[in-house]
Amino acid sequence: MAQKIGVCYGSSTCYTEMVAEKIQQMLGENRVELIDIKDADLASFQQYDFMIFGIPTWDYGELQEDWDDRWEDLDEMDFSGLSCAVYGLGDQEGYPDWFQDAIGYLYHKLKNLGADLKGHWPNQGYTFNESKALTEDKSEFVGLALDDENQPELTDDRLTIWLKELRLLQ
Ligand SMILES: Cc1cc2nc3c(=O)[nH]c(=O)nc-3n(C[C@H](O)[C@H](O)[C@H](O)COP(=O)(O)O)c2cc1C
Hints:
By secondary structure, the chain is α/β, with parallel strands linked by helices. The protein has helices at 15-27, 65-74, 101-112, 155-165; strands at residues 5-9, 32-36, 50-58, 62-63, 83-89, 116-117, 121-122, 140-141, 144-146. Residues 11-16, 56-61, 64, 89-91, 95, 98-100, 148-149 line the site of flavin mononucleotide (FMN).
């Protein structure tokens, strides 16, 4: 329980940032450091026992702009053995054909860089057509999917369950 946790997010209209702050409150300010991807020292990620990455999907299945700006910088990194998990913000009613695509892009990017990814999440309880955030057999999301537009009342419970499954919360 005494691990050092980094929560790195990009956020255009603050939703993903607010979830990062919520995670910090839930896990404790002394354990969690918040990192905006905009000015993140990517090499510092390896100093954490666990990294949580937060990414919203924008513009019909695109990366949020700050993640987009740092996307190629990530390719220079070696995240071998780094334990991490991804959460995303999206809008299943407004963008049902691109729901949470960015979770999928980031998950596969981190995996290719050697990271040890955890935190798959059930895809029941959502209504959407397509998502690039699904596992190959489409049975789960590869990270935690949050939708504060349509299901804000579910966010706290989803976070609690996910953090417990990651064994970051008792
Ligand atoms: C113009 C626009 C495009 C969006 N495109 C998508 C999308 O393709 N897929 C999706 O799941 N959500 C989409 N969303 C919803 C955002 O991901 C959602 O509002 C999210 O909470 C934004 O997070 P942020 O405030 O941290 O940037 C879009 C929202 C807007 C306003």
